[in-house]
Amino acid sequence: MLNLDYNLNSMRKKIVAGNWKMNKTAEEAVALVKELSSILATEFKGDSTILVCVPFPYLTTMKELVKDTSISVGAQNCSQFDWGAYTGETSAPMLASIKIDHVILGHSERRQYFGEDGKTIAAKVDAALKYGITPLFCCGEQLEVREAGKHFDLVRQQVAEGLFHLNAESIQKVVIAYEPVWAIGTGKTASAAQAQEMHALIRQQLAGQYGKAVADAIKILYGGSVKADNAAELFSCADVDGGLVGGASLKAREFAEIVKAAR
Ligand code: PGA
């Protein structure tokens, strides 16, 4: 019998995105990308989108370095404002002007340490889309929330607050990343079943708002302690369209193996 879920999943091209966070000197960053691109040049045969989301100061150098490779470069944040007196901020039109086409938005570390709320993140999503940049919109619950059995409600709320002001055309330009906070940087990965359960719920929520065809077109990545040895199982789930990878993206061999696990 035809496995419909599998077919839909395989229609969505996978994305494997590295989130370097605030790590690496310029020299180390260059060495990492060079090593990664040389491994992938000989070993990567797939068609997934491979992204490295690097700190702002390295964006242009990295873009230049990956020019003839299968790797693309993304940013880790952008302002909700376009221009003006916002000391220390980097805006979406700035990123667009150096041809950056992906940006992580609403990461739990931004929500937790920099007070980003749903409204701010929604405005950042708008700013990115206005300049043709694909937002990697993050959502996910803390451990206490899961233990209280409120994880589905919280993630639904984050998705609605951050994205449901968009019309059906715009929402398809967004990539969602489900990242349970208790799994980020802890070595504690959600099981494939836990990831699939939440991804299916998000897709169902999208279908309720925008219809099934739109929901089926939207990519939902999993993030939280993705490693070379758990990536294949996570990525094989029907509603998991790749991963957002923190710690393991800082080692070329480990990240390359994760990339290779996405098919
Ligand atoms: P981790 O981070 O892979 O180190 O858990 C993921 C993320 O924060 O995007």
Write up what this structure looks like.
With 263 residues, the chain is an alpha/beta fold. The chain has a single domain (14-261), classed as TIM Barrel. It has 13 helices and eight strands. An eight-stranded parallel beta sheet has the order 3-2-1-8-7-6-5-4. The radius of gyration is 17 Å and the shape is globular. The mean pLDDT is 95. 2-phosphoglycolic acid is lined by residues 19, 179, 184-185, 223-226, 244-248.
What's the quick description here?
The protein is α/β, with parallel strands linked by helices and 263 residues long.
CATH topology: the name is TIM Barrel
Oligomer state of the chains in this structure:
single chain
CATH architecture group name: Alpha-Beta Barrel
Our estimate of the beta-strand percent is: 5-15%
Helices and strands in order:
Layout: H1 4-11, E1 15-19, H2 26-43, E2 49-53, H3 59-65, E3 71-74, H4 92-97, E4 102-105, H5 108-113, H6 118-130, E5 134-139, H7 143-147, H8 151-163, H9 168-171, E6 175-178, H10 192-210, H11 212-217, E7 220-223, H12 231-235, E8 242-245, H13 252-261
Parallel strand pairs: 1-2, 1-8, 2-3, 4-5, 5-6, 6-7, 7-8
Helix pairs in contact: 2-13, 6-8, 8-10
The chain binds 2-phosphoglycolic acid.
2-phosphoglycolic acid binds next to strand 8.
